[in-house]
Design goal:
This is Pseudaminic acid synthase. It holds the Pfam family NeuB. By secondary structure, this protein is α/β, with parallel strands linked by helices. It has two domains: 223 residues, Aldolase class I (TIM Barrel, Alpha-Beta Barrel); 65 residues, Alpha-Beta Complex (Type Iii Antifreeze Protein Isoform Hplc 12). 33% of the residues lie in helices and 15% in strands. It contains twelve helices and ten strands. The strands form two sheets. The chain has an eight-stranded parallel sheet. It starts with 5 loop residues before the first strand and ends in an 18-residue tail after the last helix.
């Protein structure tokens, strides 16, 4: 990843099973300033069972209430044959293209058919250590969202990667609510993640707006991920918490401005600025031999004269020549 914040536009289910819409969305991602597009590689069978019992029946609350997980994932999944084609589209626009796999078959497909350059583990897969190990074994950079992870879960996931010899790990602070409330963001976790695990850090954000990404960057986030949709009125499982192009572009601009404002540790002041400070000036005509007093010298702007720290040293000494009102005092 670059030195600047790596900004990922998540396509997720916002293709609405329309290939042309997926292409147009990726084009808009590029125009909005994204660095990468991320998709999800799964079938409904990768994630759940087509069984209508108490465990797999219709959801009782939340954004997808009344729908079974199997139905939801059938609608949201992206056809596998699209994915190599969409990668070509993305790369032609200067975007990186990668995915979240949800089973070993998905990893193999992404590795051998799509040939992605990195992988993402979704929040709800944090406990699937065999999947994380298998993905990490491919030796590609791996990004892991921790939206439903406790500390022990993160430790296991990071260890799984390192046990496969994969040290290129990025942990994303995430709140797995859709949309997520600001008070659950807990962004102070970001620097702690870096300190605790010695990895790169970022944020996968489901809040509305740009506040969380900007604050995350200020706290050291190197990656920002946001869901992207051409128009929320298109609907779909993820539309309610996805950013439209204008919103995403504003977020990118805000993140870049935050990067510029963070800058580096510096106490350097330009010479132009120094001249605007106070210094010692003659405030009344002084004849040679007269003493400098509080009545004829003062500390005022601008900074062409002697530093004000010398004020008391100068008081009571005699002028070695005539001075005119408005003349700066100098060491000579």
């Amino acid at each position: 990843m670059q030195n600047k914040t790596y900004i990922i536009a998540e396509l997720s289910a916002n293709h609405n099973n329309d290939f042309d819409l997926a292409v147009k969305t990726i084009e808009a991602m590029a125009s909005s300033g994204a660095d990468a597009v991320k998709i999800q590689t799964y079938t409904a069978d990768s994630l759940t069972l087509n069984v209508k019992n108490e465990y797999f029946g219709p959801l009782k609350q939340g954004l997808w209430q009344g729908r079974t997980p199997y139905e939801l994932f059938q609608e949201a999944s992206m056809p596998y044959d699209w994915q190599p084609k969409l990668k070509q589209v993305a790369e032609s626009l200067g975007l990186d293209f990668f995915s979240s796999p949800f089973d070993r078959e998905g990893v193999d497909f992404l590795e051998n058919e799509v040939k992605v350059g990195r992988y993402k583990i979704a929040s709800l897969e944090i406990s699937d250590i065999p999947l994380i190990s298998y993905t990490a074994s491919k030796g590609k950079p791996i990004i892991i969202s921790i939206g439903v992870a406790e500390l022990a879960d993160i430790e296991l996931a990071v260890k799984a990667c390192r046990d496969e010899g994969n040290e290129d790990i990025t942990l994303l602070k995430c709140t797995s609510e859709y949309p997520a409330p600001f008070e659950m963001a807990n962004l102070r976790t970001i620097p702690n993640l870096r300190e605790t695990f010695g990895v790169k850090v970022g944020v996968s954000d489901h809040t509305m707006g740009s506040t969380v990404p900007v604050v995350a960057v200020a706290l050291g986030a190197e990656v920002v991920e946001k869901h992207f949709i051409l128009d929320r009125s298109l609907g779909g499982p993820d539309s309610a918490f996805s950013m439209e192009p204008e919103e995403f572009a504003f977020m990118v601009q805000s993140v870049r401005e935050a990067e510029a404002a963070l800058g580096k540790v510096s106490y350097k002041v330009s010479e132009k600025s120094k001249i605007r400070r106070r210094s010692l000036f003659v405030t009344a005509d002084i004849k040679k031999g007269e003493k400098f007093t509080e009545s004829n010298i003062r500390s005022i702007r601008p900074g062409y004269g002697l530093h004000p720290k010398h004020f008391h040293e100068v008081l009571g000494t005699q002028a070695t020549r005539d001075f005119k009102k408005g003349e700066p005092l100098t060491l000579s």
